[in-house]
Design brief:
The complex is a heterodimer.
Chain A: E1 20-29, E2 32-42, E3 47-51, H1 58-65, E4 73-78, E5 81-82, E6 85-88, E7 91-94, H2 97-104, E8 107-110, H3 122-132, H4 138-151, H5 167-179, E9 185-189, H6 200-213, E10 217-221, H7 225-231, E11 234-239, E12 242-247, H8 249-254, H9 259-271
Parallel strand pairs in A: 3-10, 3-11, 8-9, 9-10
Antiparallel strand pairs in A: 1-2, 1-4, 4-5, 6-7, 11-12
Helix pairs in contact in A: 3-4, 3-5, 4-5, 5-6
Chain B: H1 6-44, H2 50-65, H3 68-78, H4 88-113, H5 117-125, H6 130-160, H7 172-183, H8 187-218
Chain lengths: ~270, ~220
């Protein structure tokens, strides 16, 4: 990468530092450009929803922020500090794994297919990070985990293995597992897409509660347009690896400006 | 008609008991080396260092594609020419341990690759270190599918210990051949070798399949 790094600040300072900033971020798979020079700021406590057709790069945005994907250009900042880079001799250079691990503690993620650890109970899944990463005692971790399992309505199933839980139940445990790490940013990657229609509300209710009760910054990729409209502070419509249009839910859903946004919304709303 | 001489069997019993112990020692020792070495070989293939990955991959292929007997000879007879003088026991254990280590690394690899990508991602999302991801998440899930292959190779290494007789390890085969040379009787000693192998292999196979089920149950793989 022969990018000129001097245009990127070493850290973000000032009165309104975004919780997350994508600055000029590019992601390629070989010749295929998945995200093209993306700029996106998310404020502390903001709920931003990403919608768009498949292949538009929306999931990649979350995966890059969780460092499940490396980036090919640009810089991602979290809480004012660069995530993908680190300062050396007054310049940003690609981050080492130690730096990435330090910044990554601020981010939590829930996946489409839950990805619970099958050899651990619901409680064990929630306690794993606090005990093994944060170094909490088992008692403290259990207390924290039980509180969260209670919040997602899964306290009674604390001793069950994931194979004995329904999809909706597994996803709620996965949300508790992510929250047990006390992240500042939560990422929801199509968390209702693998669920049966009748249990989707179990999961959306938990997310709704999080928006109301916690000062969490959230990024969500979803196909649930109604939910996105109801819950988001801002909606970004991705098309072809770039943000085609963004705005408040009311503006984007009721008064979209761009032709592609209108086409997408018509297609999706017709299908429902 | 050749008659079966029971008195020879009783006479030889103590010698064969001793030799059976050495066979088990060779199999157990070789397997212990193989279990650890296999893990090293598979983890070395999963590092970021491309040249290391390539070298280890080729080494595993080399070992798997050449006969164990040749490898035993190499360690024992070619080693000294490079200043590596080993006793038959040491040379034998190294050869059989490395040979089966290569096979076990493939068993482990299959087990590790059977763990879905989502498990690695979830481990990363809660910020587990690489070492803890292996220890706490990947290996417990890779083990159940690997146990049956590991068990097969345990029986396999046991049945391959006669290879060590050619460099003078006094295990069962070596003892039977020596008895034959002394007494010109081959029927009883070789039959005894076969009977002893059978008497150990069959229960071992049974115990391994029991162990496999136990591992699956204990690690909560109730799929």
């Amino acid at each position: 990468m022969t990018e000129d790094m001097s245009r990127y600040p070493l850290r973000l300072e000032g009165d309104d530092v975004p919780m997350v900033r994508f600055q000029n971020v590019t992601k390629r798979y070989g010749p295929l450009v998945v995200l093209d020079q993306l700029d996106l700021d998310v404020s502390p406590g903001e709920m931003v929803t990403i919608i768009g057709p498949s292949g538009s790069g929306k999931t990649t945005v979350l995966r890059m922020l969780m460092t499940l994907e490396t980036i090919n250009g640009g810089v991602i900042y979290v809480d004012g500090e660069p995530l993908t880079h680190v300062e050396r001799n007054g310049q940003l250079v690609p981050a080492n794994s130690k730096h990435v691990r330090r910044i990554r503690t601020k981010i939590g993620m829930c996946f489409q297919h839950f990805n619970l650890f099958p050899h651990m109970t619901a409680l064990g899944n929630c306690m794993e990070g606090p005990v093994q990463v944060l170094g909490l005692s088992r008692r403290e971790a259990e207390e924290r985990s039980l509180e969260l399992l209670d919040m997602v309505g899964m306290a009674e199933k604390r001793d069950e293995h994931p194979s004995r839980l329904s999809g909706g139940q597994q996803q709620r445990v996965a949300i508790a597992r992510a929250l047990a790490m006390r992240p500042k940013v939560m990422l929801f990657d199509e968390v209702t897409s693998a669920l049966d229609p009748e249990v989707i509300s179990e999961v959306t209710n938990v997310i709704r509660h999080l928006v109301g009760a916690h000062h969490l910054t959230m990024l969500m990729v979803t196909h649930q347009m109604g939910f996105a409209k109801e819950i988001s502070d801002r909606v970004c419509f991705f098309y072809n690896g770039a943000i085609e249009e963004q705005g408040t839910p009311t503006k984007l859903f009721e008064n979209p400006e761009r032709e592609r946004t209108k086409q997408f919304l018509n297609a999706v709303l017709d299908a429902n | 008609m050749i008659e079966w001489r029971w008195h020879l069997v009783w006479e030889l019993a103590p010698r064969f008991t001793d030799a059976a112990g050495k066979t088990l020692l060779a199999a157990g020792g070789g397997y212990a080396i193989a279990v650890i070495l296999g893990l090293v070989l598979v983890l070395a293939q999963r590092t970021r260092f491309r040249s290391l990955t390539f070298a280890v991959r080729e080494f595993v292929e080399l070992i798997r594609s050449t006969p164990l007997l040749l490898q035993v000879f190499f360690v024992f007879y070619v080693g000294p020419q490079f200043g590596l003088v080993l006793s038959p026991w040491t040379a034998g254990l190294i050869a059989i341990g490395v040979h089966y280590g290569a096979y076990l690394s493939e068993v482990y690899r299959g087990g590790i690759e059977s763990v879905p990508a989502g498990q690695w991602e979830a481990a990363k999302a809660i910020n587990l270190s690489a070492a803890k991801t292996y220890r706490r998440i990947v290996i417990p899930q890779a083990l159940p599918p690997a146990v049956s292959g590991m068990g097969n190779y345990l029986v396999g290494i046991f049945k391959d210990t006669p290879m060590l007789s050619v460099i003078g390890v006094t295990e069962l085969m070596h003892t039977a051949t020596a008895v034959g040379a002394e007494s010109y009787r081959y029927l009883e000693p070789y039959t005894m070798v076969g009977a002893i192998f059978l008497a150990i292999s069959l229960p071992a196979a049974y115990l391994i399949s029991r162990f496999e089920k136990w591992v699956r149950r204990t690690l909560g793989m109730l799929k």
